[in-house]
Amino acid sequence: MAALPENTVSTPEAPAPQRSLIDVILNCLDDAKAEDIVAVDITGKSSLADHMVVASGRSQRHVGAVADQMLKALRDAGYDKPRIEGLPHCDWVLVDAGDVIVHVFRPEVREFYNIEKMWQADFAADAH
User: In the chain, which ranges are E strands?
Assistant: First the structure.
C-alpha cells in the first residue's frame, strides 16, 4: 500500500522585516517630505520605546498624508500595523510602532508642546 501524503498546506506568513524599524520610519518621513525630523534615543529613559521621532507636516492634510504613508511603509516592510491616534483632526498624529514612537505635528502645535526638548534632556540617576 502506498503511503498517504501528509497535509502540507502552508499558511502565508507576513514577510520578515528586512530593515530596522527606525530606518523604515526615517526613510518614510523623508520620502513624505516631513519637515524638521528629530530622532531621540530614549533607551534607558523610558520603558515605552527605544526611539522617539518628532516631525512636522506643513498642514493638517500633509500631517494625515505622512501618517498614512508611514502605515503603508511599515506594512510593506513586514512590521505589524502600528497603533495610531489623532488622524481625525491631524494636528498631532501619534504612531506607536512598538520600539519607535512617532509624533507628526502641525508646526504651531509642535512649537506649543515642544516634546523633543523634554526627551532630549539628560536625566540624572535616582539617588535612592
Answer: 35-41, 51-56, 83-85, 92-96, 100-105
Q: What CA–CA distance (Å, rounded) separates 67 from 103?
A: 9
Q: Residue 118 carries which side chain, given as an amino acid letter?
A: M
From CA 104, how far away is CA 92, in angstroms rounded?
6
**pLDDT per residue over 46-101, tens digit each?**
888 999 999 999 999 999 999 999 999 999 999 887 999 999 999 999 999 989 99
As a 3-state breakdown, the chain gives helix, strand, coil percent values, each rounded to 5, of: 30, 25, 45
pLDDT at 10 > cutoff 60: no
The predicted model scores a pTM of 0.79
Provide φ and ψ at 30, rounded to 5°: -65, -45
> Helix 21-31 to helix 60-76 angle, to the nearest 10 degrees?
140
Beta-carbon contacts of 52 under 8 Å, excluding residues fewer than 6 positions away, are 39, 40, 42, 100, 101, 102, 103, 115, 116, 119
Phi and psi at residue 3, to the nearest 5°? -75, 140
